[in-house]
Task: inverse folding
């Protein structure tokens, strides 16, 4: 049992967001303990199931009401657990594919738009104010800008240096410093370091933030946080990538 859990833990994404690291990813590992031995359960089918559950959660938010909000919060977590499971299973079985990774990331992006768009509508239905819809729109747009700026920067840098993507991937590699096989001090150090990711407002934090807002029916404060955080990070990361492109150009053309 320990050997299998160790191998499953090794499939965990090393750069998971805060909530993923402590909740959804460990739960996915436990679910995969049995699922990886079932032949008909495949990573791509899990990706499809994750997206289907996300759509049902969106419908729950749109319908509204305490019961539907709580059900949607549970389904959002289930969707994210499945989202963690597909990659873990692919790495465990050594069947990772670029096509699977593509659709996994694509559905992740669509889910954020669905969930927060639905939350904006639900808050509008409660208040008859368009402000929540506008906040949701800002958050979704600038969250998308983060990925789009990354894509543009990668395209420009790769045109200049075909090995740019490989070099960046090498720099991003991180040593696993926690989990099974590590002592209490290593795990505690990792735990404290992970807390910084809460401020990054990535997908895992969205799961925590949105589900909490649904359970406690506090959609408008959550949407303000969502819009403000994505406005900041979308603007900052876009500026930073442009700055890095300029600096890399200077390094590539020394005088």
Result:
């Amino acid at each position: 049992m320990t050997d299998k859990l160790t191998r499953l833990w090794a499939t965990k994404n090393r750069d998971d967001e805060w909530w993923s690291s402590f909740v959804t990813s460990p739960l996915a590992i436990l679910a995969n303990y049995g699922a990886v031995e079932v032949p008909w359960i495949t990573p791509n089918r899990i990706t499809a199931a994750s997206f289907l559950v996300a759509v049902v959660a969106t419908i729950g938010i749109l319908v509204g009401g305490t019961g539907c909000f709580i059900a949607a919060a549970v389904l959002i977590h289930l969707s994210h657990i499945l989202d963690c499971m597909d990659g873990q299973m692919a790495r465990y079985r050594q069947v990772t594919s670029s096509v699977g990774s593509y659709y996994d990331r694509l559905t992740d992006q669509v889910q954020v738009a669905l969930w927060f768009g639905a939350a904006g509508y639900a808050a509008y239905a409660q208040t008859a104010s368009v402000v929540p819809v506008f906040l949701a729109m800002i958050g979704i747009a600038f969250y998308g800008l983060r990925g789009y700026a990354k894509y543009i920067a990668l395209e420009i840098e790769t045109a200049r240096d075909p090995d740019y993507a490989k070099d960046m991937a090498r720099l991003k590699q991180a040593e696993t410093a926690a989990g099974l096989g590590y002592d209490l001090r290593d795990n505690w150090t990792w735990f404290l370091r992970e807390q910084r990711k809460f401020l990054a407002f990535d997908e895992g934090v969205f799961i925590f933030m949105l589900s909490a807002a649904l359970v406690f029916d506090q959609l408008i404060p959550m949407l303000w946080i969502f819009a403000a955080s994505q406005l900041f990070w979308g603007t900052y990361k876009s500026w930073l990538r442009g700055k890095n492109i300029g600096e890399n150009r200077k390094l590539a053309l020394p005088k």
